[in-house]
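User: Modeling request: complex.
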Amino acid sequence: MAEATVITDPYTEAAERLKTLTKVMTTKAAIAQTPKELVWTLNKAKLYRYTPVLPKEKRHPIPLVLVFALMNRPYILDLRPGHSFVEYMVNKGYDLYLLDWGAPGPEDKNLKFDDYTLDYMPRAIRKLKATFGVEQFSLLGWCIGAILTTIYAALRGDEDGLRNLILLTAPLDFSNKQGLTFARWTDERYFDIDKVLAAFGNMPGEMIDYGAKALKPVENYIGNYVKLWDNIDDPRIVESWHAMNTWVTDNVPLAGGAFRQLIVDLYRKDKLMRGELVIRGERVDLSRIHANLLTVIAEDDHITPSCQSEPIMSKVSSADKELFKVRGGHIGIMAGSGASKFTWPHIDGWLAPRSK
Amino acid sequence: MGEDPTQDGKRFDPLDAWRGVRDVYMDAWSKNMVEMVNTEAYAQATGAMLDTYLTASTPFREALEKAMVRTLEQLAMPTRADVVSIAERMTNIEMRLDDLDAKLDTIQRLITQAVAGPPPQPRKAQQPAKKAVAAKKAKRGKK
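Assistant: Request completed. Predicted assembly structure:
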């Protein structure tokens, strides 16, 4: 029996590596593959329901709605089969929904947190409740999505039937200006937001991407590619890198109105935590949040340091609340290699008994 | 015999030592850069660069926009503002449709409830009614 020939000459090896490198740098990985159906849509926003894999009697009766940030694609929650939070939660018996904000166009430049939290979210929740006959639900907000879910929970949570609120790496407290690099960059002395929005309308995704990467420039612009090259012969690492790179390079703009609120009302004036944020004439009072609360903090988060997420614990009126710190970065805690060992099981362990 | 594995099963790689040095250097560089981007000077410099770009590009952008609007109007084509206006109106129509959908859902729920009949009365609510019937019967008996 002839043995398989192993090609080991250095030129062929280098050619194979370059071929792999070209492939991952120039193509998009197959992502977001968990089956789902469209339930509701308004403007660019869409509410999806993931197809359950367990029979109804084995599923949790309280559905879970995922709300991701406005300026990134939400498929980071469903990156690839075997490494997907969505897949994990569906397998655990959750009736899972995803609110995808879509990419705002020039016509959406005036969209604000007011519209997202008092038009889009209540309408999506109403449709979910009407279609699937449920009265209560859980919300999971991540990053800017956590700001939106917090505002929504304070303004409409009780009346809409919000039972559980999970906040992941939530940038809510902006009082520690020295600890926030973004706060320094967007200081009114250096950053003219009126000029930027007059020029672009919406905040371009490329500029947001630059801002996020410039926080750790060497790691993001050089180290990331060095890591790929070092592991180019390992198909598992290459596949994981390819999927993450597909997500990282797929940016969407942030609606101008929402960006202005983020910078002026939150980064500069810290209105949410001070109880001064007014959404469509209503003051956002965090003590009006009564839902069970789980706040997840990434210990190595350079985008949302823990000082931004912790203070909400003392502001809400929730009788049942927990702060969970997990090792990892802003994205890594949910999409990194440790996510399925630490973060996902903890979220499931907390949510399951509260979804009965 | 360059392909022979070493005792620990890995091939000898002369670049390993270089990689070690590279990683140490990159770690140090990374820390310095993180500190650098956290300074007021960096914030000021990037702000100034962005401001310069916007100041320099705005007249050209505005001139281009005006020329484009005039050209499209001459060609009887919709401008960007027209398309944006239509998109905004579409969103408003979607909102109204969503309102109608909400009302239809409510009507459907009420009809379903009406067809299914009234919900069973809770026990506590039934007790006074039973007592009243018994009292009536007792009255009739006296008569």
